[in-house]
User: What shape does this take?
Amino acid sequence: MSADRPFRRWVRRSRVRSPWLVHFDCGGCNGCDIEVLDMLTPRYSAERLGVVNVGDPRQADVLVVTGPANPRNAEVLRAVYDQMLEPKVVVAAGSCAAHGGIFRGASNVLGGVGEVVPVDVFVPGCPPPPWRILAGIIDAVPLLADVRPPRSPSGGPSRPEPLRVAPDDRPAKGQVDPAIDAHDADLESVTVP
Amino acid sequence: MIPLDPLAALVVAGGTLLAPVAVGLLIGVDRKANAAVQLRVGPPVLQPLYDVTKLLAKASAGSDRVAAGLLAAHLVLAAGSFALILAGGDLLVAVLVLGAANLSFILAASAVESPFAQLGAGRELVVLVATEPLLILVVVAYALAAGSFSSAAIAAGSPYMVAVPTLALPLAVLLSATLRKSPFDLASSHHGHQELVKGSTTEMAGGWLAIAELGHWYEAAVILALIVLAAARLPVVAAALVAALYAIVIVADNTLPRATWRAALAIAWAVGGGGAAIALVTAVLASTKGAMG
Assistant: This one.
């Protein structure tokens, strides 16, 4: 058994260090989508975490969803989620993805994307700033270390997420968010037993 | 058959098994260097190895049976081509085996229904048309300079960089194409920043994508071995040569992101083909001079 422990550690480390994203937009105002794309620009240097934006759900580990769930896109969202191979995580970016946001209660809106797929991390904001989306992804990647049993749709966020960065505490231009740096340190320690 | 004693066979087998790790690390350094050029931090050097391990450890991905068989053939043929060079075998055979590996990959990409994959496969053919003649010309130039196609004899007769310096141009083109860098990233980019998104690898997922990637790493190992052959007896010079050509490839990658496939073809044949033709003439002249002297 002792021989396969380093191997298992290497596999879990590799899974955590290689989160490939697929981005699915359920609708909404596209504000969150702009922020997601902004998060992938060199300014936030997401590639240092192994993040690659892929167009194919079958190649992706992290599903970033924006916008509210509605009966028309629920099927597509579910198909995208089902095509992803385990281990996988879902990050819901923005208010609409969390609970329907400004569209909540509209006759054609089911609510947040948690009504359709199991969400692991909700990123608050309307829209959430790029560094907070990245922080949400960093929060989610430790869940990639192991294959988890199938999960059912999670519903909306169960508790208000404490804001890690005060809204006025934006990083200066060209600087990395201190909260993200702290999460980098967390990521270093992610190599589980 | 190549006569091999057991020890040499062990070295060849070990070298062939370790080659993907070495190429993975080299690509890791490359991604770091590219990030530095673009003022980013860049991923860890181990990132390519993380990526492949993760893909291999993914829950099993269904794959088209024909495509799966062809992807396996791609990996085995590319590894065989590298092993052949390492064992001192015939360079021409190694290059043709590599061509067969390329073809297997193209067939694997076109065996699935995705139009993106099919278009990517067509573009892989364009890259093959751009590079395959260069590969043959480089090998012929080596053979003319060394008087033999055997990679052992070519290694023993090195260095050739004084005799046939323009051989560096086709080798740089080949390195750029095998690493799928601009302008040769038209079939499948490592980053989803071109219009085909993932092109030829669209329908590959999980372990099958890892096998495709490992096959590409073996292809890169063959091209790197061809570069090293130019100065195989002087390891420091060989390493410097690889570093210099890699630098050219990184600069080209960062300056030609908008190049079309026509530009890729023109660059490959004008720069690479021109360099190879001059190298061929120099090699012929040098060998006739040697025969007369």
In short: Chain A has a mean pLDDT of 83.
